[in-house]
Amino acid sequence: MLKKIYDAIFITYENIIDLHECADLLYNQGKINRSYTLYHFSFEEGGRLFLLLKVLFKYLKGDIESKELNYGYLKKLGFEKHLSKLDESVLKMFVMPIFNSAKNDDMEQMEYLVNFYNEIISNINKLDNFKNKSIYVCFDNNNFVDTYKSITLEDVLYIKDLSEIQKININNHIEMIKNHGSFEDLKKYFNK
Fold first, then answer.
1. CB-count exposure of residue 61 (10 Å: 0-12, 13-18, 19+)
2. Residue ranges of the alpha helices (H) in the chain?
3. What's the whole-model pTM score?
């Protein structure tokens, strides 16, 4: 199962890139509400990738046993829950920058990042609702609302920026894993 999780990290990474590229195509064609959907999915899929990484490294560090490596374990972490994946995606966007700010004693930068993190976290439900509004005709204020009237350009630019930042963040993690060589090399590094 460990090898499957390792492989799933790269499959998920490719899916994130593909979703983002498809969103760009839609955005450039003026289909902003539909682009919102795919930027959102790209960002949310980032949370899924980080859950896979969490499980991989927990095992390699000896925090979990091989018998715990199963899909049920991933599900318990929120692998299939939209809000859990969004929370994970947001958290991983900020962990290293906040850590580095603290390490460099840059309290102003750290405070800015913490406030930005809190702003995004407070909007997780809103982001998820926008995703639904970008796909489905909604009933709002006693009226049916077309998807094109439910999502603004500002909403799209916000999720697009989050998705682009996360894509850069994820790429750094993928490069770090690749720098360790193959799956077997990574296991040797952790003495597994």
1. exposed
2. 2-28, 32-60, 71-77, 82-103, 107-122, 124-135, 147-150, 153-179, 183-189
3. 0.87
Please give the backbone phi and psi of residue 145, each rounded to the nearest 5 degrees, phi first.
Answer: -120, 125
In the block, residue with structure tokens 């969004």:
86
Strand partners, 145: 138
Q: 101 and 113 in contact (C-beta within 8 Å)?
A: yes
Tokens of 166: 């996360």
Rg of the chain on CA atoms, in Å: 18
List the structure tokens of 55.
């499980």
Structural domain range at position 13: 2-189
Length of the chain: 192
The predicted-structure confidence for 83-107, as pLDDT tens digits, reads as follows 888 988 888 888 888 888 888 898 8
Question: Considering Cα of 86, then 89, then 92, then 97, what sign does the dihedral take?
Answer: negative
Q: What is the C-alpha separation between 40 and 160, in angstroms, rounded?
A: 8
> What's the domain count of the chain?
1
Query: Could you tell me which of 22, 68, 72 has the C-alpha nearest to residue 45?
Result: 22
**CA separation for the pair 156, 143 (Å, rounded):** 23
